[in-house]
Amino acid sequence: MKKLLILFSATLLLFSCSTDELIVEEINETANLAYNDNSNFGKYKGVFTTNDGLQRATVEIFLSRNEKSTAVLSFPNGKSILFTAKTISANLVNLDNIYFSAKRGSFLVSVSDNGKDAIITNVFLNNKNGDIFIIKETSRGPITPITGTYICSNCANTTAKTFNIVVSGDGSGVQTLATQTVFDSTTYTGIGIQGNCFVPSGSTLTVCETLSGDGITTATGFTMGAYPVEWIGEMIYSNIAPDCSEITGSWVYRKGLPNEVSGTFRSDAITNCLTELVFEDFEDTTVTYTTSIAEFTNGLEDYFTRTDGSNISSSVEFTNKVGTGFFAAQDVDGGGATLPVYLTFENLDIASIGTIFFAGLFAEDDDGGNQDWDSPDNLIAEFSFNANDPIPTWTPFFAIESQGGTGTSNAPPLIDTNLDGIGDGTEITDAFAPFMAVFPNSSITNPTASQMVSIRIGIRLNSGDEDIAFDNILIRGE
């Protein structure tokens, strides 16, 4: 089974345990899964969190047909705690309130006769109440738990809190997901799906889209009060040894504009597939980029600037914003600029990097009921391994173009999947949505074997009502 692991470098929340609790002991891996497939005995996997959202772990429980059952909680810092229990009579249809205990913790496990309805209650560890969510693993259905955190970008409290995910499957294709999240000292369990997996050219990694809901009837991951929480992101895992995986994304608590609360989530960093080269969230004055012209705004519909929306036209509205800040541009030559204008991430160190991953959130405000780019309008991202040369070479790898190509007017902007100047892919709307592109560091793209790469985002928008916005630009290397 391909193991799912981690996407972002996240700060590990260290968990203190006494020496006798740091038991490195595997649950009985020799147990025959198929033998227990249709019973309530066997292996269960899942996730743990304290109710304050500050401590978390993966969970593996083996309910034995013999007297002794075991459970292991494995924390992001590499420490583990072993719990044991005496299994009650195997003659009972249901296993009720099996008491697991360790030196400083305990919980109760109840499961139905087929193991599909596992409930854990009375979770207590190190003087804190908590929550455990588990799913039975069978010979036909692997279970992979992933611990992680979320951050609320526009809340008063920006402390990282639990955002755990349990994957029903090996991560290689369409999968169902379950989430465990703590908000305001309450734990919520939600649903999600994974799909649209692909292997980028030249890469040894598989990339999959993940999103909340069931993909058919609802986009809601879970509900807090009367309002839904939705999230979207990507999962990455390795096709070759050593195994590594990561998951990251953004979430929105839909309390209604202007009260939406939002942020990002990411799995814990233990071993990464990718090295972070730069991350720009446009939330403050500390920036990782340069611009070819000074940022400007006339307070209305001519602008090229980092913004929270307060210094541009109030008629420009976006949904699915993460935090408050983003970069936006509209009618850029209205401020006297010669197009295109550029935002550049300069001289990124790729000495040990073979493939570069570029990702971000993109949106475009519609004009009443539709988007209306003319054919010259576009956003094109380019890379250069010799950006410091007198005559650098810039190569496009990601583009948003007007649908229909040359001569068309007032058409929606779409992803240009083959970089031919015609938008032919997913439409860019007023809802921020994630997009990703990949390019190799090879003898063809980088013939001089430069150890630096620069990436620039070029914007050509020369009329009113033609705009673009982007956020959370993340550049990583494999």
Brief digest:
The chain is mainly beta and 478 residues long. Helix content is 0%, strand content 47%.
Characterization of the model:
With 478 residues, the protein is mostly beta strands. It folds into two domains: 19-272, no CATH class; 279-477, Jelly Rolls (Sandwich). 0% of the residues lie in helices and 47% in strands. The protein contains no helices and 31 strands. It has strands at 42-50, 56-63, 68-74, 80-86, 95-102, 105-111, 118-125, 128-136, 143-146, 148-152, 161-168, 175-183, 186-198, 205-212, 222-224, 227-238, 245-253, 261-267, 275-280, 290-291, 296-297, 303-307, 326-330, 341-349, 355-363, 378-384, 395-402, 413-415, 433-440, 452-460, 467-477. An eight-stranded antiparallel sheet has the order 4-3-2-1-8-7-6-5, with no helix packed on it. Strands 10-11-12-13-14-16-17-18 form an eight-stranded antiparallel β-barrel.
Helix count from the secondary structure assignment: 0
Please state the CA-atom Rg, rounded to the nearest Å: 25 Å
The profile of the biggest β sheet is: 8 strands, antiparallel
Order of strands across the main sheet: 4-3-2-1-8-7-6-5
E-strand count: 31
Secondary structure: helix percent:
under 10%
Structural class: mainly beta
Outline the low-pLDDT stretches: 1-31
